[in-house]
Amino acid sequence: MSKKIKTIYPFTNEILKEYNSFSDEEIQNALRNSEESFVVWKDESVDIRVNFLEKLGEVLEDQKQEMATLITKEMGKPIQESIAEIEKCIWLIDFYHQNAEDFIADDLIDTEAQESFISYDPLGCILAIMPWNYPFWQVMRFAVPTLTAGNTALLKHANNVTGCALAIEKLFLDAGYPKGCFQTLLATHEQIETVIEDDIVKAVSLTGSEKAGKSIAEIAGRNLKKTVLELGGNNACIILEDADLDTYIDTIVKARMQNAGQSCIAAKRFIVVEGIYEKFIEKFKNTVESLQSGNPLEKETEIATMAREDLVETVMKQIEGSVEKGANILTGNKKDGNFFAPTILTDVKPEMPVFDEEVFGPVAAVCKVKNEKEAYELASKSRFGLGTMLFTEDIDAARMQISQIADGAFFINEMVKSDPRLPFGGTKASGYGRELSKEGMMEFVNKKTVYIK
Ligand SMILES: O=CCCC(=O)O
């Protein structure tokens, strides 16, 4: 039985559109199309597959405003951030257009054979399960390298961004990609389980919660299929006594508040050494309070509504649970529809929800520590491992910490951010595998050893 999927504009709660989820037969058709398309697509030469990227970039550039508006309407982020998201996708497409051929060229290895090398062959149909917070970026960073490597792709997107999911499918068709190369499935959780189990699907890429990661990896594991998991995060942002706050305060605020805090790599725990604590709090509070809130479709808006009401409620419960354990509210903590005012909590300690859990909203948890040693110790107290940020002027001392940070990323004097040129992914409860760069392209290929005696 097909299920109704509704998309809603979170700023007004207006229903945008209703969709029917696919029937089982439609799902089977999509699987078959993907398999048939793979047989042809994998045998195209790499330069032909790379050439499709040029057209893809042009089509997205032409539709930039329309696609950005769709993002804002479906999940509520400010229009300027939606435009930046589309521009980042164009950058990604251009990056793989320039580099993909090199990335997957045969790698000659010197042995006693006449010739030996690694050939990077596509695996087949890859399923992507993607979240709503960056509805274009998260999908494109999976799809662009994966398709260019010769795979085909199926997308199960978050229901609240179904319009984006269908628009992305159309984008590939508009760019001339063969039918069946990239398809969106409007599917239920039960149907997705059968899709993962189907022999046609060779691997799964998931960006989502830790809970979803465990469940998808379990189904895929039972069927001996590879997964790449990009899950939640609880990044620490360490502020040492010599941090240049005049230069970096805007970056530090953006690290927490962009996308209304709904980002896995946002700075969530601010660990501040006592020598700079008062100065940090004053600047941080002033900058957070100066963020312009309002209608997400207006270009001056810097922080807008969260994507759904239940997300606001979860954040409020995490704050309440932390205040009960001694945290103090410095600013914010007000709800207006689906808008949640940017909030700063101080006196945060381990065992409070805002320290232990991922808070997916505009809430900064601030901890005061005596010194640098305590700062690093507290920063590492997390089940997650996406990234750590450090603000200091002593780069030599910061370098000494590189080997101590157990996360997927360590950013010094910059917010943790994704970049097509650099690998992206986590450790521990933040998942495994890498996206972006050459590493991301290597996740869904068979690294085949060829030996000619
Ligand atoms: O939500 C996490 C990913 C955001 C990003 O890649 O910038």
TrEMBL record:
Q: Where along the sequence do coiled-coil regions lie?
A: none
Q: What is the similarity comment for this entry?
A: Belongs to the aldehyde dehydrogenase family.
At the top level, the lineage of the source is Bacteria
Residues of the Aldehyde dehydrogenase domain: 3-450
Q: Where is the active site?
A: 230
Q: What is this protein called?
A: NAD-dependent succinate-semialdehyde dehydrogenase
| Keyword vocabulary terms for this entry | NADP, Oxidoreductase
The opening ranks of the lineage are: Bacteria, Pseudomonadati, Bacteroidota, Flavobacteriia, Flavobacteriales
Q: Which InterPro entries match?
A: Ald_DH/histidinol_DH, Ald_DH_C, Ald_DH_CS_GLU, Ald_DH_N, Aldehyde_DH_dom, ALDH_GabD1-like, GABD/Sad-like
